[in-house]
């Protein structure tokens, strides 16, 4: 067998393997929901104990934030673990006074927003939430401090 024939055989085998892998990925994606890949986050943060005259929504937090933290790269997994978005489910919680907004950016440019009050994390339209407490608030504050 010549070098050219051997090279063609190796290349053909590689292409067949690649096609099989792509087909598996396509089929796996068709089986369930697409899992988002967040590569960047903007955290708009106000002090948890700050007193306001009105109940703040995410836009008020963005406009009055005491800190804007941009999270990228190797810090993203720690933030996503802290947020535990897989546990944000349909619940009938009424949002309180928002204090922190998480604008999570996907690789395609889509921005997904979550926000938190003292006791819950909510999706952008407040239709889903999960409970948080003092432990979450402390961990988030420590995470933010570690960025500086």
Class from secondary-structure proportions: alpha+beta
**Structural shape:** elongated
Tell me how many strands there are. 7
Count every helix, treating DSSP H or I runs of 4 or more residues as helices: 4
**Would you tell me which CATH topology of the largest domain applies?**
Immunoglobulin-like
What is the CATH first-level class name of the largest domain? Mainly Beta
CATH hierarchy: architecture of the largest domain = Sandwich
CA-to-CA gap between the ends?
62 Å
Give a short account of the largest sheet.
Answer: 7 strands, antiparallel
* Residue share in β-strands: 25-35%
What is the total domain count? 2
Strand order of the largest sheet: 2-1-4-5-6-7-3
H-E order: HEHEHEEEEEH
Topology:
Elements: H1 3-31, E1 38-45, H2 58-64, E2 67-72, H3 76-83, E3 89-90, E4 100-106, E5 111-116, E6 120-123, E7 128-131, H4 134-146
Antiparallel strand pairs: 1-2, 1-4, 3-7, 4-5, 5-6, 6-7
Helix pairs in contact: 3-4
Give structural notes.
- This protein has 148 residues and is of the alpha+beta class.
- The chain has four helices and seven strands, in the order αβαβαβββββα.
- A seven-stranded antiparallel sheet has the order 2-1-4-5-6-7-3, sandwiched between helices.
- Helix 3 packs antiparallel against helix 4.
- The termini are far apart.
- The model has no long low-confidence stretch (mean pLDDT 83).
